[in-house]
Amino acid sequence: MPVAASAIYFLNLRGDVLINRLYRDDVGGNMVDAFRMHIMQTKELGTCPVRQIGGCSFFYMRISNVYIVIVVSSNANVACAFKFVVEAVALFKSYFGGAFDEDAIRNNFVLIYELLDEIMDFGYPQNLSPEILKLYITQEGVRSPFSSKPSDKPVPNATLQVTGAVGWRREGLVYKKNEVFLDIVESVNLLMSSKGSVLRCDVTGKILMKCFLSGMPDLKLGLNDKIGLEKESQLKSRPTKSGKTIELDDVTFHQCVNLTRFNSEKTVSFVPPDGEFELMKYRITEGVNLPFRVLPTIKELGRTRMEVNVKVKSVFGAKMFALGVVIKIPVPKQTAKTSFQVTSGRAKYNAAIDCLEVWEKSGYNTVEWVRYITKAGSYEVRC
Amino acid sequence: MFPQFGATAETLSKASTMVFRIGTDAHLYDDPDDVSIAPLLDSKFDSEKCEALKRLLAQIAQGFDVSNFFPQVVKNVASQSLEVKKLVYLYLLHYAEKRPNEALLSINCFQKDLGDPNPLVRAWALRTMAGIRLHVIAPLVLVAVGKCARDPSVYVRKCAANALPKLHDLRQEEHTSAVEEIVGILLNDHSPGVVGAAAAAFASVCPYNLSLIGRNYRKLCEILPDVEEWGQIVLIGILLRYVIARHGLVKESIMLSLHCTESSHSEKDGSDVDFRLLKVPIDMSGTCDSEFVNMVSKCYIESPDEYLSRSSYTNRVSFELNGTHFTSKTNDDVKILLYCTSPLLWSNNSAVVLSAAGVHWVMAPKEDIKRIVKPLLFILRSSNASKYVVLCNIQVFAKAMPSLFAPYYEDLFICSSDSYQIKGLKLEILSSIATDSSISSIFKEFQDYIRDPDRRFAADTIAAIGLCAQRLPNMAYSCVDGLLALTKEDFLTKDFGSGDQEAGVLIQAIMSIKSIIKQDPPSHEKVIIQLVSSLDSIKVPAARAMIIWMVGEYSSLGEIIPRMLTTVLKYLAWCFTSEALETKLQILNTASKVLLCATGEDLWTFKKVFSYLVELAECDLNYDVRDRARLLKKLPSCNLGSQGPEEGTNGLNEKNVLHVVAKCIFGRQTREVKAESNNYRFYLPGSLSQIVLHAAPGYEPLPKPCSLPLDDLNVPEGTHAVEKGPDYSGTDDHGTSSGPLDEESASDYDSQHSITGSSGSGRSDDNEFTSEENDNADPLIQISDVGNASENQNGVSQSSPANLGELMSNRALESWLEEQPGSSNPGISEQSQVCKSSARISIRDVGRQVKPKSYSLLDPANGNGLKVDYSFSSEISSISPLLVCIEVFFKNCSSETIMEITLVDEESTRALDSADQAAAVNESSMKSYDNVPTLVPMEEIPSLEPGQTTRRLLQVRFHHHLLPLKLALFCNGKKLPIKLRPDIGYFVKPLPMDVEAFTDEESHLPGMFEYTRSCTFTDHIGELNKESGDGLLIKDKFLAICESLALKMLSNANLCLVSVDMPIAANLDDASGLRLRFSCEILSSLIPCLITITVQGKCCDPLNLFIKVNCEETVFGLNLMNRIVNFLVEPALF
Where is the MHD domain (chain A) (predicted)? Predict the structure, then answer.
């Protein structure tokens, strides 16, 4: 029950086809018209990501100003299709160096075609790891005249990489300086009711790793969670609670982590891919200290005016500080004019905001190569 | 400041920008045709070709048809530059199906690339070749895939696995077994990457062939965590199906929770005891809705047809699962599957988590299911779209087993960024997992939701509150209070006229109240009173109708309601005229209900109000209301007493009947519409069908428990079968004691042949047998000791790498090619073990018996009495080698003379189109033959008398050796379209050669150019039976077989019989080892084509034939082989 996508379309917001790639011949070419007619031009757009029209199923996602549509004619694993789109976009981003939007697609359509050919075969998703794909899908354009034998140079390399036993790491890497960088990025999420009680509060963290190591190293990561290795205390999941152990509620690991060993021994061991990757994600719900306290008050001044007062108070230590804190205040659709009074920072009115969120970013360095970053959590306060 | 932050991503992207020349193709995309593309394609510089191809690609991307460049693009497939090659592949894949003939031109190039030392090139070639998906090249692709499945490179093997579904998709039955065999090989691969792709192939090629999984079950389980994530998803599904088919459901799992209680009554053995112990705590805590679960599990297993037949019965057929269908959690296969899938719950890929959760859901013992909860909740944090999918699945889990998710209700609270669908799902889940302890905080949430600006969502929330109250009766009072307050509040806001949305909320609120009251009407009497009293303020018709309905339904409930009825009815009668349609109807209903139940002093008032209402209604504008009024006027007349004059005559009897009817219509409580979930159908977790809630095409339920018999698994692996082969042929009837007899008969046989052989004139000049009339009736047999034919065979294969040298770079492939000969073809290797030596004979009289088969071109019925038959002639055209000679027989079956018969080409213009050339013709030769017409004009038949037959020789050039040629037949001035079907067997001419030349030539065409197939042959049986029945001269069985085989070959193809090898040492009954060689060359290109047929089996039984074709033109060779197999299998006509 794999995806078995029959076709993939990239559409812009007007519905023009940017890229179309048919993998199977069981859907007609007019499928994209059906999508435009029955989904894009109706209010349904953006509500339900799975739609069935005339025997075909459409799975679609909007990414910046592009719709990516997967057309499927038979039963398929939907979760798999969406995961594929997400991963494919991440892959494109890493190729383009940043944004994935209509312009980027225009600029790189050949590359996208080549990638689509590689990452999906007859509708079945294939390896999407950018580290590996970059080794042999290179849009080098026209080869310069001085490298007269084009097939000689890149090929032997690619052979090794593609055929290696470990799918995500090529053999024979050598670095003068073997380095590992570890970023622990955590974000605090909060859902607060209108009465000021915390409904839900958790920290989701991810460990980003950047490896420049020679050979085929086998790494082991110790965590100070309850079930994990208590003895290794220099790697802390939460700096605020040093010394104590933390229970990790949920974890997910990168493909390279040996899950069987984690299951039996509770150690995170892995052969890392070369370069940057996300090693694991986790979630903590217990013992979360909120970095901010947000106190909103709303006063209605007559029938046409409203006053919103948001007080944000930081509760973290004096040595740390937050960068780029954004506060979004939703206002009724009919809002005509706003005026601001801010004690610090800037404010602007943007009519298209629909929720109150506080974005915060703070960072601190502890060890040379391990960083803890708390980042971009979403605070949602109902009022 | 922390400059390092975010640097990682940026540096990487910067680096990639430098390396990959990102973002330079936009001008090509925007104006793809501002430069003329054609000259660029023919340019000698790769850079210009690239640009042209990119421009074409841009047009494809935007949906323009640029297939007219096909021939030019295909030429570039031979380019050395990988870049160009890749772009050409992209183009080819897009248009190959539209232009099959030109696409075929690229095949030889792919064949060459398949031998490239670079695995990337091999893999891409294979992928593109398989992606072209033309029926014609399917056999070729199959051969290539078979080869690549044994490639040393993991990547190529993976591509081979990926090519299998493409092959399967062409639906060519004859390849199925071969494809399945390759799937088996790849599933057994030691590299996890290949296994993942093989699993996908298995799922699409042969999902029912679970015995294939059985062989490697353990290994597949163990390799599962290392398989690529996409492969994991497929593999998990396959393993689950296998375990269910093999062992059935797990007794301790949730799927059988209801069954356990049922079956435990019947069970009487010792296991009963602990079984109950296990069961009790679950029942006590009431963790799962067993009926619901039962239905879910039933849905998982039954196919859509079964579901339909089940739901058509009024009584549900009970779930037939007897004891044999259970297995226990202690089963090793179950254990290992659960053990290997549980780490996957931590996977980064949400789809993998979902699949693993699905396995645990179906297979895991109830106490272990909870481990799927947290991972499922965690993947709720991925993209919005995935969130929706995950929630759809959680919904079923939570309904079946609310206790699983009950403690985590907070995770399902709504965020402002959720879409409407997600909100709805979350509400539904929340209302099904609410418990007495969590309900208070859930209700607090709900209160927030009700104030949501999205009123649709608010209405849904109110519905959810109703559901919660039904699930938790303790909460009913507070729910109803809250809802009542809401109806009043909403009434206040409604004056602002916020429209339909607001009305929807109100209606939903009343609906929820109604459903709560239904649970326990007596305790909610006050609620009804409050609602009725607010009737005046509620303006929404649907809401009013519902309240009025409640009045009628609960009119006799409690103390207060009956007392207020008169007032209410009067009020309703007063406002009747201003009501909307549905309210009017409801008022009429209510009035009659009240009237029916009324007793005592109120009766008179009710009667008056009722007749007033009926009168009003009878003149209503709406016919529905008028009809209702007329009906009601009749029905409750009994309670109205004798009113009209017409009533009196009917007497009491009818009144009673009417009363009963009225009671039935308006009478007591409408029957509970119970468990609407019975109409639900559930689908396997993770499937599309589960999300769209109907069986999507290709949806497969779980296999029937224990449907996979044990014997299937005991089938030995391929190697065993091969080892058994010779065994079987050696010891069949005679047993071991027949050794001496065999020897004797063999020598007998030997001498007999040598006698006849010596009298022969040799075997060199029998090549022209087709044209030469030979009067010698006796077969001329010459025995020449050719030593060990099988050795020869192996020698050829082993020397192949060296001979391949000029065609492919063999360094990288050497090891790969070496392991291949023999083992890939069990038939030949087997045979080589059996026959120790063989004799070579020649058959001389065959040519005389050859009768080319005749086909009908025109039926007398269609041709006004003209019958046209044709047969392929072995003559060779003197005009051009591209022409095939065909003998055409015209016969006049009518009673009149037919005049001026001639045959012409349908579209003579097409002959000039070089593009329509057969693929068998290579490019250079193609040009020189351009001027050859499709049909050499036939000599006209001026007139044909009735009953007369005339023969004409037609010289035709077929454009393609598979597609029929359209011709037009003119007779009597009329045009009749006819189709001439080509026979590839006559696209060749005999190529006389001796055996040495044959084997030498054969050794030059190994590997890629060699194809084998097997088939059965039965012609000889009739021949043998006929002779034994006649009792005359009993011919040697072997000779009879040879003759019938050779005859069959020669009458269906223009071949030259090179040699016939006979086994000597084998017993007389065993024809194994008989080998016939034929040679020919392709008419158009003069490329030789060698055919070897090896026989296996007993003389009197159907024989297994192994046909081997060696030909440089791969497409042609394959098609020729297929043709040969086809006619060999055809039964002979006597």
Answer: 177-383
